[in-house]
Automatic annotation (TrEMBL):
PANTHER family documented for this protein: MEMBRANE PROTEIN, MEMBRANE PROTEIN-RELATED
Keywords: Cell membrane, Membrane, Transmembrane, Transmembrane helix
Name of the molecule in the record: Lipopolysaccharide assembly LapA domain-containing protein
Basic and acidic residues composition bias: residue spans: 75-85
One family name in Pfam for this protein: LapA_dom
Keyword set includes Phosphoprotein: no
Transmembrane segments: 5-23, 43-65
Domain Lipopolysaccharide assembly protein A: from-to ranges: 24-84
Renumbered residue ranges of the record's region Disordered: 75-105
Top-rank taxon, per record: Bacteria
């Protein structure tokens, strides 16, 4: 159900952006580093939204990569700790004195 709400919210945002872009069709002057040009405002808006989405996606992918690396490291540490604990248990069993016989039997 959570995914459906996310899809609905995404569609609403896309609809709002599309309406806003269609309303603004007047040409505007756009200055680039290497020149300038007159573009329809709708293209400027859509290009800006696309660049923002790509930037947010790249930042999100980088964060996911970092978290995956952290998970991998923590799993390795846990496995090493588990092996160490098993070794300690085996050593403890070897060094423990045998149980005393019960009196009365």
């Amino acid at each position: 159900m959570k995914g459906q709400w996310g899809l609905i919210a995404g569609l609403i945002v896309i609809l709002i952006i599309a309406i806003f872009a269609v309303i603004n069709v007047d040409p505007v002057e756009v200055n680039f580093l290497f020149g300038q040009g007159d573009w329809p405002l709708v293209l400027v808006i859509l290009a800006s939204v696309l660049m923002g989405a790509v930037t947010a996606g790249l930042v999100g992918m980088y964060k996911i990569y970092q978290l995956q690396q952290e998970i991998k490291q923590l799993k390795q540490e846990r496995e090493a700790s588990d092996k160490d604990n098993q070794k300690r248990r085996k050593d403890r069993k070897k060094n423990d004195p045998p149980p005393a016989p019960e009196a009365g039997k």
